[in-house]
Amino acid sequence: MALSLLAGPLSAGEPFVSADPDVSLAHFPDKILSDLPHALEGPNPWILLGGGSLAAADGFCLDPHNPWPAPLQSLGTPGLWNFGNFYGEGWVEGFGSLGCWAWGGFSGDRRLAQFGRDASQSLLMATLLVTGLKYALPRERPDGSNNLSFPSGHTITAFCVAPVIARYGGDELGIPAYALAALTGLARVEGEHHYLSDVLVGATLGVVAGNLALDETKNPSVSLGPGRVSATLAFN
Fold first, then answer.
1. Residue 204 in contact with residue 162, Cβ under 8 Å?
2. Residues whose CB is less than 8 angstroms from the CB of residue 160 and which lie 6 or more positions away in sequence, other chains included
3. Which end of the chain has fewer surrounding CB within 10 Å, N or C?
4. Residues 6+ apart with CB under 8 A from 56
């Protein structure tokens, strides 16, 4: 829902077009498989190093005392935190991503369809990653409700679509997208659903997933055949 409201601005935004023009559902698994080998290319290693270092420092030094919820709660803005929690719901981002993909295909707006496809891919990868980590590395939540604190699912959901929005919509949409993602992370800390380190890991992995869905290593090439010339796409 939230992302589908961006359909208009995205259609008229910065002229970024995906290196993979095929927006069909049948091609979707192939795109994911072709992107995965490039997970540690571009800025992603530095993002993992920086985010991981901050999360580790907070986890070892501050999480045992968990000093962050109290100052956030003292701001007295429950409506703002509620919105942050809502924005990070998987169904909100998922509905918006799939809606843009479907509407872009139906209306013939290929760039909007590419945006929806890339946002959907980022959400799928983030969901699989966060679910695996939650069960592989159980950690009790600050409020003691269960052992699924690490990492923050709401935060990874909000942050994984932010790079996609920023790439297709430019700073005009990218800055608010990152701001809303940060609000979601703070809301999860304020409500004592997560430690700050859980949120930092979620944010880091979310950005990495978003960047991976935007992989630009697929370049068009021209191949020659007997008696004919054909244009193909090379997936490197």
1. no
2. 93, 122, 123, 125, 126, 205, 206, 207, 209, 210
3. C
4. 197
